[in-house]
Amino acid sequence: MVGGGAAGMMAAIQAAYAGACVTLYERNDRVGKKILSTGNGKCNFSNEVMEAGCYYGGGAACVAEIYERFGVTETKDFFRKLGMRIKNRNGYLYPASEQAATVSDVLRYEMESLGIQLFTQCRVTGVRNVADKEGAVRLMVETDPKTCKEQETDTGQRYDAVILACGGRAAPRTGSDGTGFELAGRHGIVPTVPALTALQCEGSFWKQVAGVRCEARLILYIDGTAVSVVDGELQLTDYGISGIPVFQFSRIAAYALLEKKKVTAAIDFMPDTDAAFWEQRWEQQRKRHMEQFVTGIVNKKTGLLLLKLAGIREAETVCEINVSRRKKLESLFHSFQVTVRETNSFEQAQVCAGGVDFKEITDRLQSVKVPGLFFAGEMLDIDGICGGYNLQWAWSSGAVAGRAAAGAPEFEINTRTDGTVEVRVTELTDHLDRLHTTELGGIRIRKNLALDIEDIAAWCRTKIECGQAVITRQGKNWYVEVDNCVITVNAYSYTIITAHRKVHNPQKPLQER
């Protein structure tokens, strides 16, 4: 396991539950560092409302399938079993203590109780394929001897499976500086941009309204086309706009800016009012000065700024303002147009959008290019809106990747006509295209079976999919019995280790498929 954040710790724990011997490498001095800053220190770790529109990226369509295996219900049960009480605030889930440290602590305690080997302040520099003495391909995790010198390990350890859960690029001070994408090697990376962050806008007036918070409706435009409408508490800063509604569409703005498109936002400071409100206001306030007219409508700083931008002096009386000037002021209150120059940097972003392309991983989050290599969390091309959605993705993807890496099968259960249960393990048969062998393995198989063929992997595939094979799983290997021979396949790397003639043992009961 590379990375000790939310996804990494969940993956390590789930892999250990499945019986794997787990080692976790963390570059910081402790695990769970990024969790501590979530939810303003309270850790909004999930949400009861999960909808398709809550996620973006190439993996958004895969969320429902992943959550069917480990979703919000499983997450709540998991944390309750670790001893954490849960508080539900209108669907937003928090630890009852309202302390992010609680979430980090219970995960750390569980890792300790499971005997998961942990190396902190240890930087992983590479992950590559190596062949062991048996000819099976395994994964070597290479570490920096300068950062790992105090650990009781050398700089290259071999594993049956490796999970990369190193985070993206957001909040690099917590360790997510993008180096995980370098470890991903030849995998395609969807361009990354800051998400859940503030937007910097053009204009020299922002300092006049810095610090103002108000309920508003925001519409995001890309090249003049409205692409998102969000209501919520807007925060005006000395450089532009911030707050939850801005965060929700910041990733859309970021990608548009990356493509050199024009990005603007329209702010409605009074979304709950209509034309009747203004007619009454102009009539009731007709004898007052314009400073008085805008007082009480919105924050006074905002009102005075909009007066100035409308070309109206504070000392003018209401009756001096003609219809066209009135309409201009109303328009500024309801559709204040700002041009977005750029997003805040990754240092101020809560999430990184983009990442490892979902086209290059399986439904169990394993690489299609490097058997035995898995991904979880923010490293993947998926990001959620505010409200606990990104942490839920970390828990779910970590759990699925952890179980898959440990070889925990997903079962398809049917009932035979004689009433007995047949359990068919599909993790091998659904991925026959990944079968391969080494030169040494090929030599061994040809000798054992007296075969005179070049493509051993193709021969094994044919045997496995013939419909007569009896497939069983023991430990880290699949055993395929067919045509009086046994084919042994590493369950993590899909390496065909060996094949030999079946030895008849009348005392051994027939194993179920």
Structure summary:
The protein has 513 residues and is α+β, with helices and mostly antiparallel strands. It has helices at 6-17, 63-69, 72-81, 100-113, 179-183, 244-258, 275-284, 290-294, 300-309, 323-334, 389-405, 426-429, 439-449, 456-464; strands at residues 23-25, 46-47, 55-56, 86-89, 92-95, 117-119, 124-131, 137-143, 156-159, 162-164, 189-195, 199-201, 213-222, 225-236, 240-242, 263-268, 336-343, 351-356, 373-375, 383-384, 411-415, 421-425, 470-474, 477-482, 485-490, 496-501.
Task: Give your account of this protein's structure.
- The protein has 14 helices and 26 strands.
- The chain has 513 residues and is of the alpha+beta class.
- It has 3 domains: 6-192 and 350-405, 3-Layer(bba) Sandwich (FAD/NAD(P)-binding domain); 199-343, no CATH class; 411-501, no CATH class.
- Mean pLDDT is 90; it is low at 411-424 and 505-513.
Look up the CATH topology of the largest domain: FAD/NAD(P)-binding domain
- In terms of quaternary structure, the protein is single chain
CATH homologous superfamily caption of the largest domain: FAD/NAD(P)-binding domain
By CATH, the architecture of the largest domain is named 3-Layer(bba) Sandwich
Largest sheet report: 6 strands, antiparallel, barrel
Q: Provide a count of the helices.
A: 14
